[in-house]
Amino acid sequence: xKLVLAIVSFTLLHLHAASQVIPDQIRRENYTLRVKQLDEFxxxxxxxxxxxxxxxxxxxxxxxKLSRSILIRSLFNIYDKTWSNEKIDTxxxxxxxxxxxxFLKFNDDRWFAEVECxxxxxxxxxxxxxxxxxxxxxxxxxxxxxxxxKADFLPxxxxxxxxx
Length: 164
Description:
By secondary structure, the chain is an alpha+beta fold.
């Protein structure tokens, strides 16, 4: 009887320990595959073979077919239902067209970002959308500058201007 209890206890402990490993592996892989910096985004978009995620996928899944189109598709937020697959496909076809491919450059003054923020205004939290533009200097350094803001409480003159 003691032997049976010992075997059952060992099995349960082993299963519990093994079940702990799987979530850790999943978390680690999710972290590895997630874009964490603008450089990573650009490298994936441009299909730079030195990108850590490409190296990771090729070493961990050598039979997995990898292409620029696949990596660009992975950059879209799949939880945002405002994107249709048709629009994404059209965008990727234009970007990854072999005769006229388009690539991103980190130091490009045509970068824009739309940022949703929460500010404290007159004691209340309010949502504000800021539009930022990347400004590049002669020494190739750059900084993001606010070029527009939109909020219900802002006068029209502060509204976001159409992007060039």
